[in-house]
Amino acid sequence: MTSPNDPTLCSFIPVDAASDFPIQNLPYGVFSTSALPAPRIGVAIGDYVLDLWELEQDCRLVVGDLGVFSAPTLNPFMALGPKLWTRTRARISELLRHDNPELRDNPTLRERALVPMAQAKLHLPIAVAGYTDFYSSKEHATNVGIMFRGKDNALQPNWLHMPIAYNGRASTVVVSGTRVRRPRGQLKPPNGELPGFAPCKRLDFELEMGVVIGQASAMGGMLTEAQAEEMIFGFVLLNDWSARDIQQWEYVPLGPFQGKAFATSISPWVVTREALEPFRLSGPKQDPAPLPYLRQAKPNNYDLELEVGLRAASMKRPLRICHTNFKYMYWSSVQQLVHHAACGCAMNVGDLLGSGTISGPEKSQRGSLLEISWNGTEPIELEDGITRTFLEDNDSLVMRGWCQGDGYRIGFGEVEGTILPAE
Length: 423
Ligand code: CA
Fold this sequence. Notes:
Distance between the termini: 57 Å
Bound molecules: calcium ion
Shape: globular
Strand content: 25-35%
CATH architecture of the largest domain: Alpha-Beta Complex
């Protein structure tokens, strides 16, 4: 049988080479239409959403219990496990192939199951069980360390030995397009004696990838590299909005809290781990060697291009302010998951792991305004006369990501958010 990742596969649905959603991708999402407002599960293909519920009702796609694709989140489908994920993806690929008449030559079913993307409203694709945010880019951690502690103490002594993280808020994870209210909090200017309570003045984004966990693990257990990998259902783009002034005053000694809890945006399409398989590569050499439980036998990083655009309200289109790659991450998603569970922490279906801000070695590869404007000291120019150090009200931030194949790309679509003034 042909692999769904075969670069020569093509669909009877025309897909442009620059599209994020060729037949080799098939990312899952949750959508609704004005004709049928119940959120249900679909797959992106070119400029269409393939309605899996319609295929299920027509007995073209039978997976687990009937109704798994009429759910308003991917969680029940993910809970079925990696063998069924593989089988389902292979069947959807088969149904969309140019040489398969099943759907191609069935106008009634095509009419019902293929929804133009422009008519689909996209929803948060998963019920987020828990949200953990890592800090795994050496370049990002070094940049932030230099700004806050100086060059000699940039990386904390633990950083090279484990993936550092904190437990974030699942309740405020939102889908792309959701507007984000400027947060309020305690601020203390460096020279001020006492803190005040006011709207954040140093609002930032963080360019990250989100890992969607599709299988649970037992409390008290540990995971091997292979077990952790099998639990990863897929990936989304993630913007970990950050209030730098709130963060800087609150973070000692327990880490981020209010500065990160007001919003986290993710892209609506979950790109499966299987679709990314051809783009695997080894991450940076880890020196010192990690402890045995964190060692990896496989290359667990991905060659995945990322870019960030910023648009002030008066601008027609966003200006690109960062172009980097997921491959630079020092700790892989598999290592993050192994470490997360290592103390005996149970993982759940629908857990979301933020990779941590993804910065590369070059200046143009910095994944936050904190780094781009070097803590507000080097403003960037967006358009004649429009400069930024941090985000202003009505600014819109867009992240995109894709793996470039030969003649096709496995894309993530985008995650967008616009800042509303504080209340
Ligand atoms: Ca973060």
